[in-house]
Amino acid sequence: MTVVRRHMRRQSMKDFLGALYSHRRFSLEKLRHFQQLRNRRQVICAFLLLAIGFLAITTAVLVKVFQPYDLIFKWKLIMADKGEIFNLWAQPPVDLYIKIYLFNITNAEAFLAGREQLKVEQVGPYVYKEIMTHENITFNENNTMSTTPSHPLVWQEHMSEGRREDDEVIMLNIAMLAISHLTASHPFFVRMALKTLFVSTQAEPIVRTTAKEFMFGYPSALARLGNTFLPNWISFEKVGLIDRMYDFSTDFETFYTGVPNPALSGLYATYRGETTLPQWEGDHCSNIEYASDGTKFKSFIEPNETVKFFRKSMCRPINLYRVGEQRTFGSLKGYNYVFEDNAFDNGATNEANKCFCRKGDCQPVGLIDVTDCYYGFPISLSFPHFMNGDVGLQQNVTGMNPDPAQHSSAFVIQPESGLPLSLSVKVQINMHFKDLSNFPTVARFSHLTAPMLWFEIMMPSLPDSLDSRFNFYLNILPLVNPLGFWIALIMGVGLLGYAITRATLHMSSYARQAANISEGKYARANLLQNLTGGATNQVYSPCELKLIDNSAGANKQHVIGRSTDEDLAFQERRRKSAYALDMEPALSDAGESSDEGNECDTLTLSRNSTTSSSCIEIEHCNEEDDICIECFDENPLDSELATRTADGAEAKHQLAVSFVSSGFASSPSSIQSSSSHVNFDSSDGKGWVPYAQPHQFGGTSPKHV
Fold first, then answer.
1. What tens digit of pLDDT does each residue of 32-89 get?
2. Which of 304, 425, 555, 626 could form a disulfide linkage to 457, CB 3.0–4.6 angstroms apart?
3. What is the DSSP code (8-state) at residue 384?
4. Whole-number percent of the chain with pLDDT over 70
């Protein structure tokens, strides 16, 4: 009978607990699934943040190491067919002009008669626009490109300050004076033939002509005769200084494309198939390799580095060096580059310039002999008005007024790109004569340097379209490097920090939840094991560890003490039988005495309306077998159940069920003396709260009677 009662009591408790948690099974599974999905999303999100952070930091490092702007800019500098820089070089969309000032002779008769020295006055400017192009471009296998230059001129009357091409001027007879100079030292019979020719053609050393004819050629009987009898020497019938200076029909040039060195793109490789000019000896005077024709200079110029400039009209390369502070033209910034000091000193100051002394004959300081570039004519170049030249050059001619502010040349170059922002090249063309006493009609020009004209090749500034384009390339794009580095670095560090912090918090939260769920599973398993009469050695480690930890502390309010005698009696009975039910005393009526001396198991269920979690604690009176179940999430069905269970009861209720031995108490009196409590706190029936200690919720601690 006792066994039957015990079995019925256990079955009742089992049914009660089954009913209590059966309606929660579905919601718990659903909650676990949702929690798994949320955990998976959080893990994926953290992984993505980490990956993006590492990618951003890697990008910052790559930006710092490889400097993407520099790579892009160097790539843009390379000359490629139909490329942007190539098109700008082939047909520069710039406003390039040449201003020409003529030296009009004002005392021709008095000078020829020997009464006065030569007097001149400056007339001009006569302004032409230069359409600079590179035609017939061919790309070669050695990373160069060959081309034929073309520089046609277009008259600009509105810029000529009232001057006209048909203005009448008095100038030197270039053909007559050139022939006289070339044959002055020839045998007598040659000189006599020339004198006869001069008389028959009525040639005069000073002629009246228009400005255009002098610059671009005027009819001359001597030129026609020279072209007829000496075609290899004079291939033209008209003599004009500007016309000869801009004759590129026999020229062919080769330029570097910028592979493999982008800084050299657009610079000379050869001129007429050679890296040197045949009229000069030594690299300093003759080497034109890496020189610029003015379209583009060397890129990435260092502050102390010189750049080289070459133009056919100058007949020589000339070095430029940086002076002054940075200047702004439009939206771009550059530096002034000027001709090297003593460029025309012929070795008087700079020993290296002695190679400009043609055939060992050095002209006065301030002149350079370019006879070989002007068909053998005695042409010399200087700065305007013999600036920085020998004093005698100015004293022999009246009307020379050198002014560095007006007559100095300057190039404004953007050093990174080699782009000329502004340029002004000023050069004077003179005729320098030796002894002409063998020709009486021109004897007055003996040992005289007569100025004819000076010109300025100028580009005031870049057009707006080029200024805007290169402003983007040179001022805006360079911000890619610092901005890209700092943005990527800050974003990478921020994302890594955020991802690590979030992952740490998530792992901590997950560990707490896992511990709660794990202990809850163990508690339920232990409870079912007790209900079904399982062996007592099924108590799982989480509770054991928790009891061991708590046993060292004081004031363990959830542990119910038991006398040593009771404990020993209990252990003795447990050893006698493997089944707790066999040791259970017979159930008695309500009036029977309580089960003194019997150990008891404590089952405590706590529920609070303020949260949505619940807790069950089962404490075996033996400290070694204490069992704990904590914190389960609640669903709305629990609220209804709690409401029905409470049904107007006080804020807190306790239900104690004591069972003797491994199971449950054998009599109702034992229930009254039990130290196990089932607590329902359902003042509002809303949910379950984790069970800790009864005093934390204002309840009473379980007591033995």
1. 676 677 777 777 887 888 888 888 888 888 888 888 888 888 898 999 988 888 999 9
2. 425
3. G
4. 67
Distance between CA atoms of 445 and 105, rounded to whole angstroms? Answer: 13
Report field, pTM of the whole predicted structure over 0.85: no
pLDDT grade, residue 237 (50/70/90)? low
CA dihedral 528, 531, 532, 537 (to 10 degrees): 70
Whether 689 maps to a domain, the answer reads no
Does 141 fall in a domain?
A: no
Are the beta carbons of 116 and 107 closer than 8 angstroms? yes
Of 17-26, 118-127, 214-223, 479-488, the range with the lowest mean pLDDT is: 17-26
Angle of CA points 245, 317, 77, to nearest 5°: 100
The answer to whether residues 49 and 166 belong to one domain is: no
Instruction: Look up residue 250 and give its two tokens.
Output: 């026999």
Q: What is the mean pLDDT of residues 331-350?
A: 88
Domain membership flag for residue 692 = no
Residue 378 and residue 438 in one domain: yes
Query: Could you tell me if 482 and 456 lie in one domain?
Result: no
Q: What is the dihedral of CA 330, 333, 338, 340, to 10 degrees?
A: -170
Quick count: other Cβ atoms within 10 Å of Cβ 532? 11
Over residues 483-499, mean pLDDT: 86
In 67-173, where does DSSP find H-type helix?
68-77, 84-90, 108-112
What does residue 93 show for φ and ψ, rounded to 5 degrees? -85, 55
Contacts of 159 (CB under 8 A, 6+ apart): 97, 125, 127
Question: Among 235-244, 361-370, 410-419, where is mean pLDDT lowest?
Answer: 235-244
> Which residue type is seen at 584?
E
CA dist 23 to 10, 17, 386, 639, 688, Å?
A: 21, 11, 112, 11, 14
CA distance 587 to 203: 158
Question: What pLDDT score does 377 carry?
Answer: 86
One-letter amino acid for residue 45 of the chain: C
CA distance 416 to 322: 14
Domain range enclosing 453: 93-131+152-247+274-462
Does one domain contain both 158 and 283?
A: yes
